[in-house]
Amino acid sequence: MSGRSSGPDLVRYVIGRAEDDELPDWPDLLGRMLVVSSGRPWRAGVPGLTGAEMRATSDGVRVGGSVGPLRVQVFARRGEHGLEFDLDWHNDSGSPITDLVVGLRLQGPAGARVTIPQVIHHDNPSADPDRVVPHVSRGGFVTEVHRLPIPAVCLQDEHGETLTLVSHPDPAEDPQGRVRYGSLGAVSGDDAHALGLSGVTLFDGEPDVTYVHKARTAATTAGYRDLAPGDSLRQRFVVIRGRAASGHGFRELVRIGRELFGGGERTLGGPLDDRRHLDLRIAALDARAFADGPAVGYLKFPSWGEPRSRPGRAAVDFLYGWTGQCLRLAWCDARVGLERGEPDRLERARAAVEFYLSGSGTGVPGLRYNSYVHDDRRWQGLRCRGREIVSARAHGETMADLADLISLLRRYGTPAPAGWTTALTEAAEFFTTATTPSGLVPIGWTADGRPLPDAPWSAGIPAVRATALAAEACARPDLLSRAIELADAYHELHTRTFDRPFAHSTLDAACEDKEGGMSYFELLMTLHDLTGADRYLRRARVVADWLLTWVYHWNPQYDRGAPLRDSGFSAVGWPGVSVQNHHLDVFFPSFDLWRLGRLTGDVGLQRWARTIMATMGQGVCTTPGAWGFDVVGEQAEAFFVTNWQDRGHANTWNPSWVIALPLWQLLRFAAAGAEIGVDHVPDDVRTIERSERAVPQA
Length: 698
Known about the structure:
Helix content: 25-40%
CATH class of the largest domain: Mainly Alpha
Distance between the termini: 46 Å
CATH architecture of the largest domain: Alpha/alpha barrel
CATH topology of the largest domain: Glycosyltransferase
Oligomer: single chain
């Protein structure tokens, strides 16, 4: 911020007034900002500051006075990144004060766009209206700081100006070992404001409610504080003003996360070196391999882990795309076989592809079922809101896997069977014609090829990427032209203004989610590989920042005795999932993030990518019995860093994507020589051999 530090200058910074505007004095301003509430339910009231005493210092101002039943000392000073507030609340009465809430209320512009990482993205406009999902426009939303990958709230006005309230996440641990943090939130509308409080929550304007599971809330009183006579409570906030393109306020959050919490400033290691990590994932792949005559694939769920305790779970089933990733595992198997000279792996991968192509057809050329249940030899789609569909996301991912397998074999001088390219071409042609009235790819189709009428959102983006890959694999320039048209349409829908953030890629969530952004990011990187056009890197850079708002820039602490605390688990580098699913998982495009950093010279992205990949080695079973698994290389789908489910624990739900996606990233890092500590890597970090035949000519 500006080098000036006089009282009026700091007031002007807080309220955003111009030089010649009339300004309140500091006691007046703080009287509108300091929140004190005692009793239940809490209210975000500002009782006003009385008996104020103010003293200017060399770098800020100190103000003392009374707010309600408390004495407060406020130190507001110019910091390197913004205006820092230290609040020291003190009970100087002779009686205890119970059920206390204190904090800061920061007035924002009317109609502000609000971003709170992982929970609020422009008020979550794509969430189904009948789903319980966080919003700020329904009376406000305040949540625990440990739920936020970057502990901050950003409000952006119509001109692009941003106002961000950051909470320094200082944990308080009671004698029983219970750890508590403060809380952050916002209210939108004409009276838009951010709230930094001492731990209480708000959901749809109702106090003492928190989000505890998918589409579920629960009452809580955990955020209230008691102050005995003579006790104090301290809070630290930073107010930061900035600017970003309209709708891109999240980029300010990533910048703040880097500057205040060190995100991407250095590469952090994990518990496993790259070779050990890779070998463990390969061991898990081998344990998932299954063959029974012509039925060859990789188990969606093995005979170990939580799913086996669920009645009705199939003994043997394959899922292609989404949480199953059967053909992505085939690609990994083939890659390892080709690199290590293990032909049995290559043959197993080939057999898995042949089984899929021979049985998955629906009767509509290019449309294939997503799932195979070996128990009763049945092919099927996926269930989406009570009906069976062929998922566009799952089908698109599977066809992208097929394209990558074709390219992999060619790279090693082995032509792919003609049936593979035929299937890929048919799928790409289907994707580009069986669209919604909007012209985008639907969330899915009925088995007879009819697009679902739902709004398309982001679920169809993997199908567009598969179409682009098919252009190269099948020498069809027209398919690349069509993929570019669709990519531009998704740019208009999502990334130009982010009025409609990426959403509906997690079929079980129906809301804003990280995975839709991942798909578009990978599509942009693919289009750059195929065309060399810089606009895709520029767009990818924006989407990378959006994705990084889901990645923890800091490490929350857990209650004493919690498994994640006992294991030394660090959340730094782990991404969340969606505004409805507030847990951590290993689903992230870490290698393409690294490639983007290489291609643009952004060292921070390269460091982030390697940190993310390394830290995901936490929670991997290294000896039988570790983390609740019998097979080495297994890993849980969810690590609970928040009060969404069981904070401080991990589950043993282990669909095969938990193996496939990290293994896919690790194999590409290894091929690029991009291990931690390795500085000399190839300059050309494309993952596709660019074909002139596939590039539209101007």
